[in-house]
Fold these 2 entries.
Entry 1:
Amino acid sequence: MTTVAHISAFTHRGRVRARNEDTVVVGDWISPPHMAEPRAARLSLSAPVVCAVADGLGGHRAGEVASRRAAEQLAAASPGLTSADSVAACLGRINDALHRAMADDPACAGMGTTIVGVVLGARMIWFNIGDSRLYQFHAGELTQVSIDDTPAGPRTGILTQCLGGTTFGRPVRPHVGGLPAAARSRLLLCSDGLTDMLDDDDIADCLALPPTDAVAELFDLAMRAGGVDNVSIIVVSLDERA
């Protein structure tokens, strides 16, 4: 059996923020800061394909630089991401690279980004650092797979770890795990600009739609709820074909 992924991705600055500090990556495609509509792709998973959302830290310098550099390095490394250890090592290298960039350029001091992603292929590997999220929707049930790096209790926007984000080098401890490639399941990767606007029931209702329709509906609901942050969304639909 061959697994085929139908993927739709979109990123937008939202209603309030002056610029978009998020970056989305699907395979070797990296999102521009401005998109007019979702980008759809159909990929046969004969080799590892990375899908990820990087959310540059608001309130810090150069959040858009941090998220784009993380996305570029992740996309370049994707052929070698065949195990949990290789994914964790890649994220560690990205973190180190961001700190080196800050040391070289004072204008980037303190820049950082969250990251959430999945490696699609024979072995499905998920990963995250920060509070961007990965959900799996299967048989009508929505499950959060990623682990939020936030203090316990109500959400405050405070992170306990991210890529970069400090003016001194600090190692990261990525959350990494395996993910069953369940046929006819949906995966949602998103920044907190979506999850801060919508509850799980709204998200689940949207994920019952085809990928591009799901992305459009999720974005529309987030905007109607206020759109106070950048919004980035990737919806992956997995299908097994003989």
Note: The helical segments are 63-77, 84-104, 192-195, 200-207, 211-224.
Entry 2:
Amino acid sequence: MNFLKDWTSGEGRLSQKGYALYFLAPGAALIVATWLAFALAPGLFGSSGAIVVIAPWMLFLAITDGQNIRRCHDIGNSGRLYRLLRPLVVVLPLLALLLNFVLPAHMAMAGDVQALVYMMGQDMNGFSFGPIPMALFGLTLAGMICSVGYLAAMPGMQGPNDHGPDPRSGANLPGIVKPVATEADDRVERALAQYQAQQNKPATPMIKPMRNGPVGASFGRKRA
């Protein structure tokens, strides 16, 4: 459970290397697997067996929000814009399906002849999408590509920021949690550094060497 929490958590930061390992690599593997399933068994998508392909994508989209938000934190962004736009990845495709299939079906049942002809064409000639649904799908795909490309290409901030320590030190990777230094720890470290500096400081001589007087000088009075 702790590993799953670390994986899905939006707290902390995630480096470019961690993003490639925990988001880009699984996403690319899912794309390849989906393409192979469509090429080798196209009939799978028209049956209940499609859940074999849909379920991994739903799981991937459900647990990778934390990875994207932590990447935003590493760049120096709060992640609020990502949280605001993230529902559109689901809303826009659902709206496209609603406009392309559900709405025409209801209109056909209400007696609209054009909608009935449209649904008959969909049934006889195979599924097709109108310009508005295709535009919604294209907008969703373009937004996802731009977001992923931005998060993958932007370097993270050097050193700690408001969201945590630099992940390049190995902290805040999924499954790896390092304690964050507290103010008390900082005071102890500063005191230790001052003590070590004093120990390494060369000792000040207690007796200053006497300066030599001028040549020919003598101490005391001269005898007559």
Note: The chain has nine helices and no strands.
